[in-house]
Amino acid sequence: MATISRRSVEARLEEAVGLARAIRLDVVRAEIAHITRPRPSSLLGSGTLESLGGLIGENEIGLVVIDAALSPVQQRNLERRWQAKVIDRTGLILEIFGERAQSHEGRLQVELAALSYQRSRLVRSWTHLERQRGGFGFLGGPGESQLEIDRRLIGERIARLKHELEGTKRTRTLHREARRRVPYPVVALVGYTNAGKSTLFNRLTRSSVVAGDMLFATLDPTMRRLQLPSGHEAILSDTVGFVSDLPTHLVAAFQATLEEVTEADIVVHVRDAHHPDSEAQRNDVVKVLLDLGLDEPVEDGLIEVMNKVDLLDPTTRASLENQRLRNSQSVVLSAVTGEGCDALLGLINRRLETQARMVRLDIPLTDGKTLAWLYRRGEVVGRRDDDEAAHLSVRLSEPDIARLRHRQRLH
């Protein structure tokens, strides 16, 4: 496996092995190939090509994963040289996403990303598309080459997928409008894949979503109700894990799914404090958040959770605690043992309360639902009733003020 990255090559290699095992590939060998000057034709130099070719032949390896981005030419040349199937980092991540996506929309998004990727590196292996679409092979006409047929079939399929996704987008917009009528703020968990988001999600909500020691264990967002110390409630959303060098078109395909993050009232960034590349992983997550359109600087709005402290030695842990004291928006915890989770809930609670401001409202006495909503969601500090309306002074968070406006528009 070749790596080109600013991060430690050992940690990068370990992650690549984890990605391969995430789709149950049997990893026979994992090698670091140092590249001084990438070759346009093959990425790797002749010496590396030969030594790796020997390993591939001796071990009868049928699939080689290169942990870098390969051009179509490089991929084809490596396959010819080694007589084995070769995929790059993007191809591997697409394979994982294709296997893990559960929702209809998730599967559509993965297929769209995969076809967009495949279109740039067409090979003569797409004739199955014709059979899948129910045709008899006559559409191209006698003068159309197989490559042109393949390109056209992929283009048609991409167009159909985009049309289907537009329909799901409209449905999701309706769902989001419905959620705005629900009197709960949304808290989104984000983080590098395998940072422990799903384990923390289960701990905080007492639920049981899939949470394994596996890269990309969660692909489709999961939402549950979260009880806060004040007695108020929020919605907690567990999102797909991020990874370094996440393909741009894959981020674009999952833009809709990740709207849960951009729509959230609070974003909680879960970090693996035990991982040697924790800081580099943090930077990768922040980059994806910026790509999603969160306002810069992203860091100012995040609650940062340093997870897996139960795995740290006492010295490292003490250093982490000292750093936390300098950052009021940081929490040190273990999602596995539950230590520090109460502190996180308290911080979320305080953040939602400090977002509040005083508003004066005139609510018809006949609108009992809105009055009950205000008492449940806000702090009513003054009230005067006349024959028709209740005149209230209420402390409400900005998200709840927006929800109230939405409610009043619907009445």
Architecture overview:
The structure is a single chain. The chain has 411 residues and is α/β, with parallel strands linked by helices. It has 4 domains: 9-90, 3-Layer(aba) Sandwich (Rossmann fold), CATH 3.40.50; 101-173; 184-353, Rossmann fold (3-Layer(aba) Sandwich); 356-410. 46% of the residues lie in helices and 16% in strands. It contains 15 helices and 11 strands. Helix 5 packs antiparallel against helix 7. The radius of gyration is 26 Å and the shape is flat.
Q: How far is the N terminus from the C terminus?
A: 61 Å
Mean pLDDT: 81
Order of helices and strands: HHEHEHHHHEHEEHHEHEHEHEHEEH
Number of domains: 4
User: How much is the radius of gyration in Å?
Assistant: 26 Å
Oligomer: single chain
- Helical content (DSSP H or I, runs of 4+): 40-55%
CATH homologous superfamily of the largest domain, by name? Answer: P-loop containing nucleotide triphosphate hydrolases
List how many beta strands DSSP finds: 11
**CATH class wording of the largest domain:** Alpha Beta
Shape verdict: flat
CATH-derived architecture of the largest domain: 3-Layer(aba) Sandwich
Q: Which segments are poorly predicted (pLDDT under 50) over 5 or more consecutive residues?
A: 1-5, 124-143
What's the helix count?
15
Structural class: alpha/beta
Q: How are the strands ordered across the major sheet? A: 4-5-3-6-7-8
CATH fold field value of the largest domain: Rossmann fold
